[in-house]
Amino acid sequence: MTSVKEFRVEREPTATTLGRGSFVFTDDYSVFDWGKMPDEIPDKGASLCAMGAFNFELLEDEGVPTHYRGVVNSEARRASDSRAAEPRDDSDTGEVVPLAEADAPPTEMAIELTQVPDLPHEGRDYDYDAYHDEAGDNYLIPLEVVFRNSVPVGSSLRRRTDPADHGLDFEEWPEGVVQLEEPIVEFSTKYEEGDRYLTRREADRIAGLADIEELESVAREVNRVVTERAAEAELVHEDGKIECCYFDGEVRVADVVGTFDENRFTFHGQQVSKEFVRQYHKRTQPEWVEAVEAAKQEAKARNVADWKSLCEASPEPLDGEVVAAARDLYAAGTNAYVGRELFDAPALEDAVAVVRNL
After folding, report:
1. How far apart are CA 8 and CA 12, in angstroms?
2. Which of 85, 118, 268, 296 is the most exposed place for a label (fewest CB within 10 A)?
3. In a 10 Å sphere around its CB, with 0-12 CB exposed, 13-18 middle and 19+ buried, how is residue 221 labelled?
């Protein structure tokens, strides 16, 4: 369960077999690790599902292993649900189809399931040995693999590292955006309450049986595929992340790939991603954003995992015009990226112009 998508579980995974299930995408959104925010963005769930499915199918064409099975055809799902007395496997009802065969923008993605053991912790000390003892050799790797094609002014990379750490020919970070000739790949924690970036040695230990070099190689290939596709839609792919599972000695791409929530894209310099909503909150609700940061720092100082209970403010709902603009941005961006009019939405150029003026 996440803040913006839910699970259907049809068959549980075991130590030696993958399970089956699906992600059900909602119109909820989350910024600054808050979890579910007070509003919904219409069609956001379908946008993420469609982009994720499209990218998984691109990756499969390139020979990259994934946990993706297809999308659940909404019309077929409703017909099947009305007839079925008991839950049954989607593949037996013919409901799982490639994106191109979906009758409408899908909100459910069929996937293979791996094991996700509990990650015990005391305060901010997490027991990854216990995680892997229970996981065996069929598990979700408790890492996020982050790739960056540029380093914007506000990037955490500037605070944590020097240009020389990445082979860049600067004594210090320049004032403007740094465009990278080669992507920078980093690793961060997945299941800790406050995610943190890791050294390669730390990441290698947390990855368990999975090979850290293979993880990096897969991330670079995903980045290449998404970057090239984005360029065809006049989008610039700035950065993103992947999550992976390990099964039968192989790293497979999991979760969702290359969407406007997992990745940052720009169109002629304007953000076309969740980053737009993040920046809008920074401008219009700075007290809440500052309270979130203060709570995270206090939790770190106290060595406790739950920072949200220490936060002294809560976010306010967005204005209706902002919700509408965000909806059009997600929908228009998805249409442009997949090269198909899945949604009734303005041209991407027009959607971006509205957001730029907010």
Report:
1. 10
2. 85
3. middle
Paired strand residues for 177? none
The C-alpha atoms of residue 27 and residue 248 are separated, in whole angstroms, by 35
Residue 160 has pLDDT above 90, yes or no: yes
Q: Looking at residue 358, what is its pLDDT?
A: 84
Alpha-carbon distance of 104 to 343, in angstroms, equals: 9
Backbone φ, ψ for residue 147 (5° rounding)? -125, 140
Of residues 246 and 83, more confidently modeled? 246
Residue 84 has pLDDT above 80, yes or no: no
How far is the C-alpha of 105 from the C-alpha of 236, rounded, in Å?
24
Where helices occur in 9-127 by DSSP H, the ranges are: 44-61, 74-83, 90-93
User: In terms of DSSP H, where are the helices of the chain?
Assistant: 44-61, 74-83, 90-93, 128-135, 156-160, 200-207, 212-232, 274-284, 286-302, 320-338, 348-356
With b meaning 16 or more CB within 10 Å and e meaning fewer, what string describes 343-353? bebbebeebbe
Question: What residues are paired with 112 via a beta bridge?
Answer: 20
Average pLDDT on 69-90 reads 58
Residue pLDDT, tens place only, 191-203: 987 789 999 999 9
Q: How many CB atoms neighbour CB 46 within 10 A?
A: 24
CB 342 within 8 A of CB 330: no
Residues 193-220, buried b or exposed e (16+ Cβ, 10 A)?
Answer: beeebbeeeebbebbbebebeebbebbe
Strands 143-151 and 197-198: unpaired
Domain boundaries, the chain: 5-356
pTM (predicted TM-score): 0.89
CATH code for the structural domain at 5-356: 3.30.470.20
